[in-house]
């Protein structure tokens, strides 16, 4: 039996619900016979759920650079790349009429200007069809203006759990709790950079990464991280640990 990575469980904090029409389960799900297509479809519902306004859509360019989506499409990496799996999943979802695809001309409205096109995707709902109708009527700006740039992709970088699993090792409940604390305390860019430094120094353990972040927090990020400082901090932590029942002997 293949090794199965266990799910660490949902946190105690309030989670944001994702709305999925009940017809997805009764009518659409029985028809989907491709795992990548199923993952893509659910991912689209998740991304669109975080948008506001009447007209919601997803850009193909954003989907193709979505690390969370691509990471979920690596199960058959021996047969095809995540990008190839995504391209086929998009084709299947469009052929099944789950997603509605449009080629959008984004080039300047000038003679002899180079043609720039983007592929946009809409869920096949009344509002999705209405948005496409507006675009065909030449009212692209009405659709485009309701979607802020920052809402295109909800997660455009791997979260701290994915970073740990991909670069360090298997998650345990204790490590997961520490990672949640790190994610709450430090900026995403800091966490990613700290992981990169630890990997580059071949120090693939969480204490080393946390030491980098704590050092930046207290002394700032000017200059490079001193590897020896991180190692010495860990060594001091190990030396300073004294079991309570021996403390009088050690301190005496």
What does this entry look like structurally?
The chain has a 3-stranded antiparallel beta sheet, with helices on both faces. The termini are far apart. The protein has 13 helices and 3 strands. The protein has 252 residues and is mainly α. The radius of gyration is 24 Å and the shape is globular. The protein folds into 2 domains: 22-151, Arc Repressor Mutant, subunit A (Orthogonal Bundle); 160-247, Arc Repressor Mutant, subunit A (Orthogonal Bundle), CATH 1.10.10.
Widest sheet, order of strands: 1-3-2
Rg, nearest Å: 24 Å
Q: How much strand content do the residues show?
A: 5-15%
What about the largest sheet? 3 strands, antiparallel
**SS field, number of helical segments:** 13
**Low-pLDDT stretches:** 150-156, 229-252
| Helix/strand order, N-terminal first | HHEHHHEEHHHHHHHH
How many beta-strand elements? 3
Any idea of the CATH topology of the largest domain? Arc Repressor Mutant, subunit A
| Overall number of structural domains | 2
C-alpha end-to-end distance: 55 Å
Which term fits the overall shape?
A: globular
State the CATH class of the largest domain: Mainly Alpha
In percent, how helical is the residue content? 40-55%
Based on secondary structure, the structural category is: mainly alpha
Tell me what the CATH architecture of the largest domain is: Orthogonal Bundle
- Mean pLDDT across all amino acids: 79
């Amino acid at each position: 039996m293949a090794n199965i990575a266990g799910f660490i469980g949902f946190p105690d904090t309030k989670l944001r619900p994702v709305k999925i029409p009940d017809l997805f389960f009764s009518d659409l799900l029985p028809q989907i016979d491709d795992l990548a297509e199923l993952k893509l479809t659910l991912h689209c519902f998740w991304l669109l759920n975080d948008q506001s306004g009447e007209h919601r859509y997803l850009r193909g360019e954003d989907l193709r650079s979505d690390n969370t989506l691509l990471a979920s499409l690596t199960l058959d990496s021996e047969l095809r790349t995540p990008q190839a799996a995504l391209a086929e999943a998009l084709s299947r979802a469009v052929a099944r009429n789950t997603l509605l695809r449009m080629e959008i001309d984004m080039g300047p409205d000038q003679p002899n200007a180079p043609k720039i096109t983007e592929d946009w995707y809409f869920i096949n709902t009344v509002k999705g069809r209405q948005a496409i109708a507006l675009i065909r009527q030449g009212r692209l700006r009405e659709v485009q203006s309701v979607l802020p740039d920052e809402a295109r992709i909800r997660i455009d970088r791997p979260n701290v759990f994915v970073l740990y699993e991909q670069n360090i090792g298997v998650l345990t409940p204790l490590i997961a709790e520490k990672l949640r604390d790190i994610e709450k305390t430090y900026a995403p860019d800091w966490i990613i950079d700290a992981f990169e430094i630890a990997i580059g120094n071949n120090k693939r353990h969480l204490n080393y990464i946390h030491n980098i972040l704590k050092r930046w927090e207290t002394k700032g990020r000017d200059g490079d991280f001193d590897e020896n400082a991180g190692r010495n901090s860990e060594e001091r932590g190990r030396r300073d640990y004294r079991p309570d029942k021996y403390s009088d002997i050690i301190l005496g």
